[in-house]
Design goal:
CATH topology of the largest domain: Nucleotidyltransferase, domain 5
Helix content: 25-40%
Structural class: alpha/beta
Oligomer: single chain
Radius of gyration: 19 Å
Shape: globular
CATH architecture of the largest domain: 2-Layer Sandwich
Order of helices and strands: EEEHEEEHEEEHHEHEH
Strand content: 25-35%
Length: 238
C-alpha cells in the first residue's frame, strides 16, 4: 500500500493507494484523527506534500520501506518559464507534472478549486508557463464579512444555485461570490483557448463537481487529481 498525504491551507488530505487505485480517503484539520486513519495499515511507500499549518510531527512515526517529502527534484523533465518556481505551491507543481504525464501531446490547463482558485498552464514541451491565483469561494465570503461592518458571513453550499439578481443581502453576496467566480473561470478559459487552441482543461479540488457542470467547456474532472499525481510519483520511483 502507498500512503499519500497533502497538507493544505484548510485541511490535511490522506489517501491509501493499492497500485493506481485509491482505496481510502480522509480529509480534515485534526492530526490525531489523521494518525488514527493509518492504524493497522502496512505502508510500503509514503509521500508528504504541502505547506499548510497542520502539525506533521507524526510523519516521523510512519514506518515505510520508502518515505519521500515532495520537492521539485522529484519532477523529472519539467522546465519553467515561471520566473519564481521556488515560490510555486506544491499542489500546482504536482498538478502540472501529472497533467503532462497523462496528456503529453496537449497543452494542459489545471484549474484547482480549493482555498484558492488557481490556474496552472504547462505546455506540450513540459514547460510550466504560469497561471493565476485568486481567492476561493469560502475565502471570498470571509473577506466580505471581515472587511466590512455589516455584511454577514455566508456559508457556501454547493447544492444551492445562485441567482443573477439577489433579492436580499445574503442572496446578493451569494450571487457575487458564485457567479463572479464562474464568470471569471469562463472568461479565463476563453482567453487561454485563443492562445492555446490545443488546450486540455483539467479541474480538481473541492468545487470540481459544482463548477464542471456549469462551464460550457469539455473538462477532465478529478477532485483527487493532486493525490493521484503524488501516488504516480511514488509509482514512477519503482
Amino acid at each position: 500500500m502507498n500512503l499519500v498525504v497533502e497538507i493544505g491551507n484548510s485541511n490535511a488530505k490522506l489517501a491509501i493507494f493499492n497500485g493506481k487505485d485509491m482505496v481510502q480517503f480522509w480529509s480534515g484539520p485534526d492530526e490525531e484523527e489523521l494518525k488514527n486513519q493509518l492504524h493497522g495499515i502496512k505502508i510500503q511507500k509514503a509521500i508528504l506534500s504541502g505547506s499548510g499549518n497542520i502539525n506533521v510531527d507524526w510523519w516521523q512515526e510512519i514506518h515505510a520501506e520508502k518515505k519521500l517529502i515532495f520537492n521539485t527534484n522529484l519532477l523529472p523533465h519539467i522546465r519553467f518559464e515561471y520566473t519564481t518556481p521556488q515560490s510555486m505551491g506544491a499542489d500546482r507543481l504536482i498538478n502540472a507534472w501529472y497533467a503532462h504525464r497523462l496528456f503529453p501531446e496537449k497543452d494542459n490547463l489545471v484549474i484547482d478549486t480549493g482555498t484558492c482558485i488557481t490556474f496552472t498552464l504547462i505546455n506540450s514541451q513540459s514547460t510550466i508557463i504560469g497561471g493565476s491565483i485568486s481567492p476561493g469561494l469560502a475565502l471570498r465570503a470571509a473577506s466580505l464579512h471581515h472587511y466590512t461592518d455589516k455584511l454577514p458571513l455566508i456559508e457556501i453550499d454547493y447544492n444551492q444555485e445562485a441567482e443573477l439578481i439577489g433579492k436580499n443581502t445574503q442572496a446578493s453576496i451569494y450571487s457575487g461570490i458564485i457567479l463572479g467566480s464562474l464568470f471569471e473561470m469562463e472568461k479565463r478559459i476563453e482567453l487561454y483557448l485563443t492562445q492555446f487552441p490545443n488546450l486540455n482543461i483539467i479541474m480538481t479540488g473541492g468545487g470540481t463537481q459544482f463548477f464542471e457542470n456549469k462551464l460550457n467547456y469539455r473538462i477532465f474532472a478529478d477532485r483527487h487529481f493532486t493525490l493521484e499525481g503524488l501516488n504516480a510519483l511514488l509509482l514512477a520511483d519503482e
